[in-house]
Amino acid sequence: MREIALHLMDIAENSVAAGASNVEITIEEDLQNDRLKAAIQDDGRGMGEELLGRITDPFVTSRTTRKVGLGIPLLKAAAEACDGGLCIASAPGRGTHLEVSFQRSHIDRMPLGDIAGTMLTLVIAYPRIHWVFRYRANGTEFTFDDEPIKKELEGISLTEPSILTFIRELLEEGISQVRQTILEKETMPKLSTPQSRR
Amino acid sequence: MSSVKSLEDLKRLKEEALEKRKARATSGHAQVTVGMGTCGIAAGARETMKAILEVIEEEDLSDIIVTQTGCIGLCEWEPIVEVRLADGPKVTYGKVSPKAAREIMKEHIEGGKVLTELVIPA
To answer: Shortest CA distance to A133 belongs to which of A186, A178, A76, A80?
Structure first.
């Protein structure tokens, strides 16, 4: 997994498998405090205390095809290698909330990656789930909520080519706008370096 | 400046899609399923999925149901793509790169021809 966006897609699959109807993914780039955080909240079946305590063990999984479940342990390891961490809260019938954080400037911090691609894939592949996606940085926030879109479409498939284009562009533009503010903020310090020390 | 997307734009697209649907002779749909377990994602399945969606946009293909599935236990064959035309048999392709996905969309979905060389052996 070379992108945080891919890890998030992997974790979101867990929410789907847990029977969630609503999944919210939030990403925050906090330049001030040098943190990059992501959270996934779902209203799926949740986990009991016993399973929750073991969930970061790679040999714990609910699937039957293999004896390992690497998604959460790999993400936890990636976060901890970057002075960050992962925590999960869950309860039966109450859904699950997973939060992961990284030191944003850490040399080992993998790129955020193609979040638009991840979101598009999830929204298209699981149209019966209500997806909300928030990306925030520098006081700018982009929110994507597929509910008003689906309501407007009244049953037209999201894979109808023109609709697919609409959603893809909406995601790409929204994310790019937030990214732009980050880039501007990152290049600013260099421009305002004091000249007095000559 | 990026275009401002509004629900008005969406409304217009919906009307157009409805018109298109009326004009089109009713035909069967196709279902494409991409494996998106941890093994699939690590093998690049998201890029495979993106390529499939790109072909849908480029070739203006309607009535394609695109879904994902978790790990099916054939991890060494990921990215895996299952194709089913209308009520036909399910064909399971393995090691589907974005390039192979494009071929599958064009040859199998559009052309109805199974690409046997990409199918996972029994």
So the answer is: A178
Q: What is the pTM of this model?
A: 0.89
ipTM of the prediction greater than 0.85, yes or no: yes
A95-100 average pLDDT score: 96
- Under 8 Å CB-to-CB from A123, ≥6 apart: which residues? A131, A146, A158, A167
Closest CA–CA distance from residue A196 to any residue of chain B (Å): 37
CA distance A194 to chain B (A): 33
Of B38, B47, B59, the CB nearest to A70: B38
* Residue B16 near chain A (CB below 8 Å): yes
Q: What is the pLDDT of residues A143-163, one digit of tens each?
A: 999 999 999 998 888 999 999
